[in-house]
Specification:
Layout (H helix, E strand, L loop, with lengths): L18 H11 L6 E5 L5 H9 L2 E5 L3 H13 L6 E4 L3 H6 L4 E6 L6 H11 E11 L2 H13 L4 E6 L2 E6 L2 E6 L3 E6 L1
Parallel strand pairs: 1-2, 1-4, 2-3, 4-5
Antiparallel strand pairs: 5-9, 6-9, 7-8
Helix pairs in contact: 1-2, 5-6
This protein binds S-adenosylmethionine.
The site of S-adenosylmethionine (SAM) has 24 residues, from helix 2.
Length: about 180
């Protein structure tokens, strides 16, 4: 796994997804090296870089050109990217142009979550998986409801991570915001 502080950042682009959350997402993804994966809303590239190390082909989609640029720089910095296609498009348009996939990780949706999930599920091969990471309560609920409407059995895990910060007199645990991971079973 790539440490958080090894990502180049752009103050205008969210991410990277915290290391602990990336760990869980990669465990759930269960990639074995031959899969086609899509990262919807690649941001800084946190998830894209982990996918690039584990899948055979990765499509990293973001409608913000600054996100595509910083993801590209992070791929280059870590010597990854030969198997990654960067797509500066809205998620719906990008997914409409893709063929079969084994995994979709959705970290941004811009109010289009239902359509994004429909398109991802239409392209999903047997045994494939959809994973949504969500901070907003509304996104968590919508992801659960849409995936169930599409006929999936769904799991949800809420992650509340605290990291130790060293002070002169000891170690203080500093909480990060909770994130839900919603995934098809
Ligand atoms: C929270 S960030 C994702 C962070 C990323 N997982 C990482 O580890 O760096 C969400 C991203 O989704 C993108 N986004 C939101 N809605 C989108 C849409 N409909 N189509 C494409 N990108 C979208 C935003 O531009 C933003 O960069």
């Amino acid at each position: 796994m790539i440490p958080d502080d090894e990502f180049i950042r752009d103050p205008h682009v969210p991410g990277p997804t915290k290391l602990e959350v990336r760990c869980l997402v990669m465990c759930l993804a269960g990639l074995r090296g031959h899969e086609v994966a899509v990262d919807v809303g690649c941001g800084t590239g946190g998830i894209t870089l982990e996918l690039a190390e584990r899948a055979s082909r990765v499509y990293a989609i973001d409608r913000d050109p600054r996100a595509i640029s910083i993801t590209g720089r992070n791929l280059e910095k870590h010597g990854l990217g030969d198997n990654v296609s960067l797509m500066n498009l809205d998620a719906v348009e990008a997914l409409e142009g893709l063929g079969e996939i084994d995994l979709a990780v959705i970290g941004g949706n811009g109010g289009e979550l239902r359509r994004i999930l429909e398109l991802a599920s239409e392209r999903l091969r047997d045994g494939g998986r959809i994973i949504v990471t969500a901070i907003l309560l509304e996104t968590k609920y919508e992801a659960l409801r849409c995936l169930r409407d599409l006929g999936f059995e769904v799991g949800i895990t809420e992650v509340s991570v605290s990291r130790g910060r060293m002070l002169d007199r000891g170690t203080m645990m500093v909480a990060q915001n909770p994130i839900s991971i919603i995934y098809t079973l």
